[in-house]
Queue: 4 jobs
Job 1
Amino acid sequence: MCNPIEGQVLMLTAAKASVPGERLPNLLERAQAALAPECERYRREYERVHADDNREAFLVEWGHWETLGDDLELSERELSALRRAHEEQLLRIGRRTDREAEFETALEIREPVCIATSAGDER
């Protein structure tokens, strides 16, 4: 399965997360499996702030991850790790595209969702 989170971001998130690092890839795959079929809906309903060959990034309302976490039956720690991975990925994109300050400001009021769009695997 595709993963919208780059390997370096995955390692950083695993180091900071309150879940074992070896569980994070599985959590990301579960989230991707839930998000990918909804990509068209995200495009219609949310602001897409980035798109490239590997992923699309959206800004969604606060509480979005809690709803997704409930749907996936995630613990608070698992949910926190997923949210952090998507935040770190968006900030990494921001650093690359000279939009980091813009994304940091946006994250004060919204949450990011990154969805893999290619057949390649970033891990």
Job 2
Amino acid sequence: MDPLYSAMATAEGGRNGRVSTSDGSVDVQLTMPKGLGGPETPGTTNPEQLFASGYAACFHGALLAMARNEKVDVSGSSVTAVVGIGKTDDGGLGLAVELEVNVPGVDQETAQRLAEKAHGFCPYSKATRGNIDVALDVTTLAG
């Protein structure tokens, strides 16, 4: 792969530390989520929230690109990524993702097709494929 862009972030202190990007645009305090035994401190975040944010934005970008290619108006569409972390059979931890894809104003078949094409195109989907469970939940309800 020939990178078109590279992002750099540094974490210190693990899940109860801080993460920041090299350009300073992200600089956040991390706290272990309550579900993993942490205090869920207001004003902090965790790696799962950051991953969900990146995946949702990337997938929505892929959805918009697929819609442009097919000349389908997906105004008002959105993607919500729900990232879960839990115990795996080997005693460790693993991730699972549900992508809630909402494409109002188009029929269900078109929305599903665009979401599946986006799933094949999105770099986050490519990176997770075969590694973690990713489920697509596609709706066409007006928000």
Job 3
Amino acid sequence: MAASFKRILLKLSGEALMGELDYGTDPERVAAVAREVAAVRDAGVEVAIVVGAGNIYRGMKGAAEGMDRATGDYMGMLATLLNALPLQDSLEKIGTNTRVQSALAVSEVAEPYLRRRAMRHLEKGRVVIFAAGTGNPFFTTDTAAALRAAEIHAEIILMAKNGVEGVFSADPAVDPEAQFIPEITHMEAIERRLRVMDSTALALCMENGMPLNVFNMDDEGALARIISGERVGTLVTTTTGEGDGG
């Protein structure tokens, strides 16, 4: 695989690690994701990952009902660690050196997030998994992905969705007339309220000229095809026509 990018940030939704389960983490699915990430790393691409926690948090939804928003958000941040650790384990089992950095202090299981250390790990060929979001309530893991990508000078954010091929004009699960959008600008996505990522994260990407590639993680080999320069899913850029390669 000839890589079109030198450094990427992969945003993994929690649901992408859920497999066929109602909630929780499917070990086979985590192992499959790890193999795809390892293949990209072996092609010489520096890989950072931000993990979500929808697969775990949906199981805690009842417990969080009526709870203070900040408390619920901290629960979600801790839940991302429950995804980061098995992903790290799966990557290291297949020989890919991996570090987990957490925005919340959990020194027994993860390094603290330090930007310069994260970049050094990437330069040494290690995969870096960023857990606990931004470390602040009221911000999503999408915003964490936009922030970390800008901080580490990633060339692109790859938004891995669960069972969705890219960006659509409406929710394809609800509206059978929803149309696939192969390319769009950050501003258009914000104005049309499309479900690419939350508006704070999109605005941050737009301000930093950070392109996004939204794709279906269930499509085996999609990640490798994107890295090799193939058009897969939806490209979101500051100006349409940009971002076809690294």
Job 4
Amino acid sequence: MHHILEQVATGEYEEAVSPAPDITALLCVAQERNLAASRLPYHKVPLADLEPVSGALLADAADWIHRMVAEGRRVLVFSSRGTSRPPSVVIAYLCLHLGCSFGEALQRVARRQPSILLLPGLAASIDEIGAGRSRQGRPPE
């Protein structure tokens, strides 16, 4: 598990099955994985590994992290191996909700999790979401 922020970590499926005591919410971003019965708040956003990510799915994941953090929860964002989808989603969260530029968000995540693979088109999807929210007059949360 990699603690990217105090309240947001990335990891792999096995770490979500038996989460660390400080984890209080679970976000599955693996299309191929499910948790049968979680005692913690749980949300699934089905992303395919190493395929371009839909803006709607990426926004759903980033917004859910934001809601959990606002409630004071510590979120584990996980997939099968935890190397591409979780860090990509956390980068989107940093950009869309904490006001980081893409480069700044990438650096923050890579400092805590050096071995990452970004989902194809991630920066463009984040830009698309941000532009759509600006057109709607919706400020970043």
